[in-house]
Write a structure and sequence with these properties.
The chain is α+β, with helices and mostly antiparallel strands and 260 residues long. The chain is built from seven helices and seven strands. It folds into two domains: 193 residues, Butyryl-CoA Dehydrogenase, subunit A, domain 3, CATH 1.20.140.150; 43 residues, no CATH class. It is 50% helix and 18% strand. The chain has a five-stranded antiparallel beta sheet with strand order 4-3-2-1-5. The protein is elongated.
Length: 260
């Protein structure tokens, strides 16, 4: 299959493909980073009188713990792979991964229609895949947000106080990786899908309208006869010879011929 000239593609298809590429990159970054939620704690140790800022941030695949001493101005973070997660969290992982697979499939279909062939079936499948992918991504984000709001552990940490330490402040919030995935889901459904639908409405098949050449029976015989004999007829043979002229002389103009 030869690569076609993309100048014949609609501006909607070109714009949607470029935006979809940006959406794909954004979603991959947001899905990979352990920055979906973060918790900042301020811990004061009564024994040594030292205040430590402790942070926890997590994504879909890793969770990390960080500690920084205000007195020593040093800190360190340790990240671990997620294990023993609840069912709802595994569901979020699944739908976000399916959304990524859908974006990749939609990108391949977009490139196929852009560089190779304007196929109506490809265009319809592309719109459906993109809408389903965006819906799955948004569902995963909503479930994660609802469950994050019910993390009573984070809310109750601020009430912990023992003889050795005291947790002074707790700040739990959604982080930037979560919003990157949210932006990817919204762009795919609210921007890319309408552009692909607009391109589908202006769809015209890739066909070459070649008009057939018709020959009359006489012309076919003449052409065939000339080709068989290898001889091309002259103008005199095709249209007849000119009328004959006779030399007649008149007394006043002996050199002027006239038609007989």
């Amino acid at each position: 299959m030869a690569i076609r000239d993309i100048s014949s593609s609609s501006s909607s298809l070109k714009s949607a493909t470029i935006i979809l590429l940006v959406v794909l990159v954004i979603h991959i970054v947001g899905l990979s980073l352990p920055r979906w939620i973060s918790v900042e704690l301020t811990v004061t140790e009564h024994v040594e009188g030292q205040t430590t800022e402790t942070g926890y941030h997590a994504g879909l695949w890793q969770h990390c713990g960080c500690a920084k001493s205000k007195f020593l101005k040093t800190g360190a973070c340790l990240c671990f792979s997620r294990t023993n997660d609840p069912i709802w969290f595994n569901m979020v992982q699944a739908v976000e991964t399916l959304g990524l697979i859908g974006l990749i499939a939609s990108m391949l279909l977009s490139l196929a229609t852009l560089f190779y062939q304007h196929n109506k079936k490809y265009k319809i499948a592309n719109v459906l895949i993109l809408l389903v992918s965006g819906t799955l991504m948004v569902i995963g984000l909503v479930v994660f947000k609802v469950k994050a709001d019910t993390f009573e552990l984070f809310k109750d940490l601020g009430k912990i106080e023992t003889s050795e330490m005291e947790i002074d402040q707790v700040d739990a919030k959604l982080n930037y990786a979560y919003f990157l995935c949210g932006a990817a889901g919204c762009l795919s459904m609210l921007v890319c899908a309408p552009l692909y639908v607009k391109d589908l409405c202006s769809y015209t098949p890739d066909t070459l309208n070649e008009s057939a050449v018709h020959y009359t029976a006489q012309a076919q015989c003449l052409v065939q006869g000339n080709m068989d004999s290898g001889y091309m007829r002259t103008a005199d043979e095709q249209y007849g010879f000119p009328p004959a002229y006779e030399q007649r002389y008149v007394p006043n103009n002996a050199e002027l011929p006239y038609k007989s």
